[in-house]
Amino acid sequence: MLSPCDTENWGVALTALAEIRRWEEIAAALVRDEPALVSSLDFGPFVRQGIGPGPSVWIGDQVGIPLFLPDQVGNYDHRLAPLARDGDIVVVRTRVPAFEAYLADYPGIGGVTFLEADAKSLSPVAAQCRSEPQLRNVLIAALQDRGAMTIQPYVANGHAWRLAADLGAEAELAVHVAGPGPRVMRRSNDKLWFWELARKIAGVGSVPPTWAAYGPAAAAGHVARLIRRHGQVVLKVPNSAGGAGNIRIDGTKLSAYTISVIREFLIRHLSALGWDGTYPVLVGVWESGVTRSPSAQVWIPAQGDGPPEVLGLFEQAVEGDAGVFIGARPACLPSALKARMIDEAIAIGSVLQRIGYFGPCSFDAVLRTGSAGETELHWIECNGRWSGVSIPLVAAKMRRRGHGAGGLVIFQDRLAAHGVSGIIEVCTALEDLLFRQGTSEGIMIMSPPPPGDRLTFNAVSMAESQMRAEEIARAAFLRIAEGA
């Protein structure tokens, strides 16, 4: 199964047989140590992994990712809607009819059924689709009418797979899930597990200095030691996402404190994030000399359907001490470094493929200047799911039919509204800049702005060239920021 859109195949490496065998040995050892990586795909006779015939059910909910609660999801669960095709179903926590009208009128995403879950429920939307008749009945009817269905979740957790199992069993029809099995999903999104995998594939120096702490005293001890040696330290809840579980620690504030005081400091700050007290946590060096934060956007097909494809290398923009993602644009890297990133991303993706991973995946990295002036590449995180870059990247490829992705600028920014709020006002302000079906450039809005006096501008600027995409992006940014 190939990617859900036409892609340039520039990221497929020609790999030596010896290297492929090494990947196979690493994957075999992982499965041998943890058989559930493979067995967790068994959800009954009607469930398949991949993308099958019939409609897709797009579920962009982030609840279920550790530390993400309903009020943090906002309207970001609408981001998968631009990937929908005629006949598909999109399930969100709160419907925004004006955004649905925008999708139909501008990028031409019509013929899509939108369903509304319970916005305030702590239960993930996929779980609500199993338990709530007003959601489940619509999905069953669509499955019976079309004879097959694919669940397309933002993150393929156990709730998505159990939804597929329930629907398939009731209708006695095949339901596919476009994502990895639950165990592989959890492992790939676990920073400690991923960093160990990266070390095995790309070498010990491929990740920052990192330790797993299995209790509060151990975490405090690691922090105290690293503060003395490096000054800046980061503590991470290893299975969270988007900087939600990151605490950056300035050594100047804690260097004089005892282990017990540092221990209480860490527990207090972790608890404030919503942390559930589960160990291990990750303690690492907050690296100095970081010059860039690129990511590799990868599509991993089913094993036997070809090697992983690198769809693009993107430069991430982050803000704040936690390093929260706010946007991206294509990375401009020296050719040797670009080739290395592609090779290592494909190597990591190939091992994941061999333990049952399928679907979109991205690997975040940092580039830093080493002690001898050399550029070091450190992998820091795997997003074993859709991401803030992969969604607009694939949407652009789908909507710019025959043009490829072209130049892209991705926005995920918070701006002062200054009188511009809501999707209707945004469309009015950007009217001549908006992408329209059948054209090759413009702004495509990825999710509706939430209500309130702060505007989240989640969009992608796309054009034939990067220069033109940047020009359109600057014009849109200024209009939104100024309330034009």
Describe what this molecule looks like in 3D:
- It contains 16 helices and 19 strands.
- The longest helix is centred in the last third of the chain and has 20 residues, at 335-354.
- With 484 residues, the chain is an alpha+beta fold.
- α5 (125-131) crosses α6 (133-146) and α10 packs across α12.
- β3, α4 (97-105) and β4 (113-116) form a beta-alpha-beta unit.
Summarize this entry quickly.
The protein has 16 helices and 19 strands. The chain is an alpha+beta fold and 484 residues long. Mean pLDDT is 87; it is low at 1-14.
Task: Based on the model shown, name its key terms.
six-stranded parallel β-sheet; alpha+beta; 484 residues; globular; nine-stranded antiparallel β-sheet
The shape, in one word, is: globular
Q: Please give the alpha-carbon distance between the first and last residues.
A: 45 Å
Q: Which structural class should the secondary elements be placed in?
A: alpha+beta
Percent of sequence in beta strands: 15-25%
Quaternary organisation of the protein chains: single chain
Main sheet makeup: 9 strands, antiparallel
Low-pLDDT runs of 5+ residues are 1-14
